[in-house]
Predict the 3D structure of the following.
Amino acid sequence: MACMDAAGNLPKSSGPEPAGPALKLGRYSLRVPLIQGGMGVRISASGLAGAVAAAGGVGTIATVGLGQASSYYDGTNLFDANVKALADELREARKIAPDGVISANCMVALTDYDTLVRAAVENGVDIVTSGAGLPLALPELTRDRPEVALVPIVSSLKAARVVVRNWGRKHKRLPDAFIVEEPASAGGHLGAKLEDVDKPEFKLEKVVPEVVEYLREDVKADVPVFAAGGIWDKEDVARAFSLGARGVQMATRFVCTHECDAPAAFKEAYLKAREEDVVVFMSPAGLPGRAVRNAFMRAVEDGTRPPDRCFANCLAYCSYQTEHQPFCIATALVNAQRGEVDNGLIFCGAKVHRSSEIVHVRDIIDELFPG
């Protein structure tokens, strides 16, 4: 944990570590400088997270929607079911990777964000990654578990500055790492306004060096930066490292693995997706999102999607609940997770069209980080 001293001074940087097996993230040493991105509603649950952790990276369980797609959910107890299902998934991931590093991804935009963060740390998670809003409350929520590393997800230097200043002033600590995510390539919810998604000022080539320099020169702290969005092959990893990142986050490529928790129909949709099938749309969460243009998305685009029942107040802000626009995202994601891919939302990254076969997690990691 990167903390200030009693006088409020930040730790001096000892210089950048080389990217590689010895990368430190808080108290944890990563054999592979890779964080698996969180993909909600049981796309990245214990199976995928455990496999990535066992292979030396950070395996991530996405906390959103776990209860809704579990046996604990009775139609009325979503938040309680989320906590119980998260405990199960963390326990199962730990069985797969007893000595691995396990993360929970918690979206700030969720109504039960505080509850999920607390449940994650109480059930032994090593790292919490947090985005879809600025995770300003994260240090307080994890105050009793200082061993848990905290990693905000940002898309701009401005956001990184806000987090550093807020955490320093209120909690006398720093993030243990930052994930810098590029909206133009990332999957799921994107950290920019819809009209800004493709703007050059949010590209990794601009933001990663800015954040790295800010942490080194202004903050005077050794906080590693992980580059995210469009990471697919060794060339992408090398590009990220050349920008000053010391690790990468990858999500989309891990869907088409044997270990991924997604149903076969979901993986098949990735295998069939073409480059032109990817669409950016406005999510009910008030953020843009990237997904496969399937029958569901075409119905949303042309206004023929029938209304869904809003069964839970799952988002802090939800345009479907307030304005019935454009659809219930919880229902759409659960439908996709159940294999109803023509009637569900299939989040993806911009390079989903490069999915060509089902492989093992370790095959991908060995390809990216040989030796």
Notes: The CA atoms of residues 232 and 253 lie 6 Å apart.
